[in-house]
Amino acid sequence: MGRMHADEHAIDTTLVRRLVRGQFPRWADLPVTPLASGGTVNAVYRLGDDLTVRLPLTGGGAADIAKERRALSTLGELPVAVPAVVAVGEPAEGYPWAWAVHSWLDGAPALEGRAVRGLAEFVLALRANTAAGPPARRGQPLAGVDTATRRAIEELSRTDEPFDAEAALAVWAEALDAPQWTAPPCRLHGDLMPSNLLLRDGRLTGVLDWATAGVGDPAIDLIPAWNLLTAATRRAFRDAVAPDDATWARGRGRALSMAVIQLPYYRHTNAVISANARYVLAELGVLTRSR
């Protein structure tokens, strides 16, 4: 991974050890190990066998510490494990923001193109969760990201990616034209990327990164249909979740918007995110897979 953001704070194992030793001396002797991650908001380190340390990379991501803590504290019963916030650290040692210690969840991140059992069950269970929550940013009408999406499509069309801007605009127009969600807001995760989905033996057992959680249009939690599944498993996922045609179209639009914004920004700095963006765009039929 390269430096992803212009205002990214330098974080390394030594800094993490100093922060832990200074604020949580009971964990001072635990080994600290950096975790390979496609994440764009936090640097993540394993602390001993049972904990992880999450440090925001930028000031913009620092607010997510409190958002995620609130979201995790209000979740009802779910069919998968979610991390617990064990402690929250304060700025120190030259690091300017709050940071968090979470419980460790076993499991391997999902991989594009692999079948995932239990995904639809989780999405439906979360949607049925009646706990109150703030509006999810990605649960709002797609018109709010229209300008950014069109700008990203134009930018991507100027790169050497085998990208069909006209086809992308057609997918986007269909999503914008779809009727909006008018039912009561649903509980959402908002960022069901493969790296946030933990599997054991092909079954979903844990879901990470709840900073984008809230309530709103459930279309956002359909994005694994394109960022993870194949045509065959996508059909099964759709049948199990049973969204109406308009919600499915908005979900497809969300997947497109996220991918076209991510790819130009991360194509040289985050191999995991850029590869997933290419996977999404290929599944949507707007980018040719490399041979």
UniProtKB/TrEMBL annotation:
Pfam families: APH (PF01636). This is Phosphotransferase. InterPro entries: AGP_Transferase (IPR051678), Aminoglycoside_PTrfase (IPR002575), Kinase-like_dom_sf (IPR011009). GO terms for molecular function: transferase activity. Coiled coil: none annotated. SUPFAM superfamilies: Protein kinase-like (PK-like). Keywords: Transferase. The keyword Lipid biosynthesis does not apply. Residues 36-252 form the Aminoglycoside phosphotransferase domain.
